[in-house]
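As noted in the main text, all predictions were made from sequence alone. Below is one such record, for Fructose-1,6-bisphosphatase class 1.
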Amino acid sequence: MKPTALSRHLIEAQHQGHINADLRLLLEVVARACKSIATAVGKGALGGVLGDAGTGNVQGEAQKKLDVLSNEILLEANEWGGHLAGLASEEMDHAHAIPNNYPRGNYLLLFDPLDGSSNIDVNVSVGTIFSVLRCPDGVTEPRDEHFLQPGTEQVAAGYCVYGPSTMLVLSFGRGTHAFTLDREQGSFILTRADIRIPEETQEFAINMSNQRHWEAPMQAYIDELLAGKTGPRGKDFNMRWVASMVADVHRILTRGGVFMYPVDAKCRDKGGRLRLMYEANPMAFIVEQAGGACSTGRGRMLEVTPEALHQRVPVFLGSKNEVAQAERHHREHDARA
Ligand code: F6P
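Prediction:
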């Protein structure tokens, strides 16, 4: 059978009534922008794009040249197509309404243009994460508050991982599908349809250097995993941490596992480390559509009511039964407290 290109996959989804023409166009445009980012990332030192931009974003993080460039690529690609009412990005303080000189559509796009960008200079996988929401009825110039919808309202979400190969992983609520970039043809080809995350796992991903800063239930949970075969879980666990959420989540979609960034004493006042609107929610959507789970440790991620565009949350995602174990520890601890 001939391989299925992303364009065909989306057109067929439109014909089946799963997405409309505007959403199809939006997803095509995001995919095209990801191809441009893949080219820039792939050039590495030869493209003159490595290193710091010399600026900071709203979160007080130093921006890499590729953070800024990827943000510009996504903005430029999406502004004029007529499918969006507004955009919001990790790299911009506030939401950006589509300028008056362009046609406006009914969707809102949120993105982290280049997640894990501390990995760029060391040639380790990075990625783009995005989330699509509907613009509330009657709103023509969306502001931050119009983006503050729970993750359950997402109509599509995805990420593109720039690794040894470039892969776009996408869901519009009909399963999670992965497309590999054919660099010669310049098109994304469906290489894994309807991904399923194994419910059980023996692999976890966490930044262990934060251990002493975690809350008590987190300490207890990881102690259990580290105790291995002779501990209460009765099995050995392996650990992996790329420090690039897209790459860690991609591994989990490939072979299972649990990814965790709990709240700790260093980030408690901010609510966590990872951002709800353009990191946790889109990943939660993709993971749930693949049969996995995503939680704050104390509730389903997709049901969190957002309060700010750049809000941070604790994140537990991946194999269903392991996310449930992490939740159990939090529940039991909270009940005792
Ligand atoms: O966006 C934040 C991020 O870069 C994620 O991609 C990654 O999972 C995490 O931070 C790494 O955090 P740390 O540097 O604390 O390991």
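The chain has a mean pLDDT of 96. The longest strand covers residues 107-115. These features were considered when defining construct boundaries for the mutagenesis experiments described in Section 2.9.
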